[in-house]
Amino acid sequence: MVRLRTSHLLAPAFVLLSLAAAAQNRVPRVFPDLDQKIATVLPTADESAFLEIPWRLNVMTARAESARTGKPMFVWEMNGHPLGHT
């Protein structure tokens, strides 16, 4: 008695389906408003202004620069992974 595996039955079905799709000359759908939809979820220039902040990795250098320029210094300190993967 010959036992057929599921993969032996599915492989010909996939081949037949792909041949049928190719025979119909299907053209992929075009989404003309996709760029407009993407633009609605991307941050504006005002919303991404924090990216223009000149971040400093050395606290002592940042402290000296803050004292020299008279600008405030923000220190972000935490314990663990910034995304919570601890």
List the total number of helices.
Answer: 3
Which whole number gives the mean pLDDT?
78
Main structural class: mainly alpha
Q: N- to C-terminal separation?
A: 54 Å
The rough form would be described as elongated
Helices and strands, in N-to-C order? HHH
Main sheet characteristics: none
Using the CA coordinates, give the radius of gyration. Answer: 29 Å
Number of strands: 0
Strand content: under 5%
Share of helical residues: 40-55%
pLDDT below 50 for ≥5 consecutive residues: which ranges?
none
Structure description:
The protein has 86 residues and is mainly alpha-helical. It has a domain of 29 residues. The chain is 43% helix and 0% strand. It is built from 3 helices and no strands. It starts with 5 loop residues before the first helix and ends in a 17-residue tail after the last helix.
In a few lines, what is going on in this structure?
The protein has 86 residues and is mostly helical. It is 43% helix and 0% strand. It is elongated.
